[in-house]
Amino acid sequence: MEIPEAWLKKASDPEALMKIKSGKWVLLSDGRLLRRGYTTGTTAAATCKGAILSLVEPVKEVEVPTPSGLRIIIPARAEKGTCTATKDGGDHEFDVTSGLDIVATARASKVTELISGEGIGRIIGCSPPAPASKAKGKAAISRSALDQITKAIAEGLEASGLRGARIELVVPSGREVAQKTLNPKMGVIGGISILGSTGFVEPWNEHLGESRQEEIKNLRKVVVTTGRVGLRYSRVLFPEHTAVLMGSRLEGLSFDEDQESILCGLPALILKWSWPEVLEGSGYGTVAEMVEKDPHHQNISRALERAKEKLPGTRVVLLHRDGRIFRDTE
User: Fold this and answer.
1) Are strands 59-65 and 71-79 parallel, antiparallel or unpaired?
2) What distance, in Å, lies between the first and last C-alpha atoms of the chain?
C-alpha cells in the first residue's frame, strides 16, 4: 500500500515515515498517527517463546514473527519457565482484551507439546450449550495464530538449545473477559479466543468511524471492507472502486442511492453483523467452520438476505482467505 505524499506532508511527527514502516503505526489522511495494537495470537506467541527462553535465563522482552511478515518485540516478564505478557490493544478504543495478561509455563521435554489451559475458550458449537466446566471441544485458537505460536516456540527451542518443551498457555482472566465478547453466543465457552491474521490490531475509535462514514459518502464508487484480506483483494476485484477499510464496526453503515456500493470481506464478520444468530441450530461452532464444511448451508443464504435488507442496493461479496469469491449477491 502506498502512502499519499499529501498525507505525509500533513504529519507533524518527523518520524512518521519510520513509524509507518515499522508496521506499528497507521497514518490517516489528516496527518494523524494511530498506534496499532497486538493480537492475542502475537501476545501468546511471545509468552510461549519467552517461557522457553527463561528456562536458560530471565527474559524482559521477546522478539516474535507475525503472520504479516514483520517481526516485533513484546515486553515480557519471564524466569524459571514462566512468562507473562500483557495484551496491548494500541489505539483501539473498544478492544476488551487490551490489558489482559497471557501466561505460558514451559518445562523441558523430549517432544514439543502445546496445552491450552484455563481462560482459553473451547469451541463446542451453539446447540446444545454445555456448561463451561464441561467444555471439551477444540481450543479456540485460529489457524494463523497457532502457526505463529508454533514458529515462536521453534525459535525459542533453537535459541535455548532444548530438544523439546511442554508449554501450557493460560489466560487467568480469560473466562471473565470472554463474557464481554461474542464468544458465549458463538459456541465458544470458558474463555477468550486466540486470534490474529496479521499479528496486529487495527486502531479504531468512534471519531474514526464517523470520519470513515464521511469519507464513504464522498465516493461515487466505493467498496467497504472489514479487514486486510478484503482490502487487499477488493483493489484487485473492483479496481474502479475506492476501497475503504471499515473494520468490524458496521453498525450505522449506509450508502446513498446514487452510489455504486459494495461490502466485501471474509464471511464471519459480515454474516454475524447481518444476522447475529447465524450459527443457531447450524451445529457449527464458528462461521469459518460452517463455510468450510457446509458452504451451501441455508443459514449463510439467510444471513446474506438480511445483509441486503440492511443495505438495499449494495452488492455483498464474501471472500475466501486466498481472494477467491465465496458468495456474491450480484
Assistant:
1) antiparallel
2) 28
* Parallel/antiparallel/unpaired status of strands 113-116 and 101-108: unpaired
pLDDT of residue 324: 92
Report the half-sphere exposure of 235 (CA within 13 A, side-chain side). 10
CATH code for residues 38-200: 3.30.2110.10
What is the value of pTM for the model shown?
0.74
Domain 205-328: what homologous superfamily?
CbiD-like domains (3.40.50.10720)
Would strands 260-265 and 82-86 be described as parallel, antiparallel, or unpaired? unpaired
Residues of the chain short of pLDDT 50, as ranges, are 126-135
What are the sequence ranges of the domains in the chain? 5-35, 38-200, 205-328
Neighbours of 312 (CB within 10 A): 8
280, 126 Cβ separation under 8 angstroms: yes
Residue 167: phi and psi, rounded to 5, are -115, 130
Name the pairing type of β-strands 122-123 and 138-139: antiparallel
| All residues at 6 or more sequence positions from 49 whose CB lies less than 8 Å from its CB, including other chains | 62, 64, 83, 152, 153, 155, 156
Beta partners for residue 173, in sequence order: none
Of residues 74, 54, 77, the one with CA closest to residue 64: 74
User: pLDDT tens digit string along 178-230?
Assistant: 999 878 877 789 999 999 888 998 887 655 666 677 778 878 999 999 887 88
Tens-place pLDDT, residues 105-129: 999 999 999 999 999 999 876 444 4
The DSSP annotation for 95-148 comes to -TTTT-EEEEEEEE-SS-EEEE-TEE-EE--SSSPPPGGG--SEE-B-HHHHHH
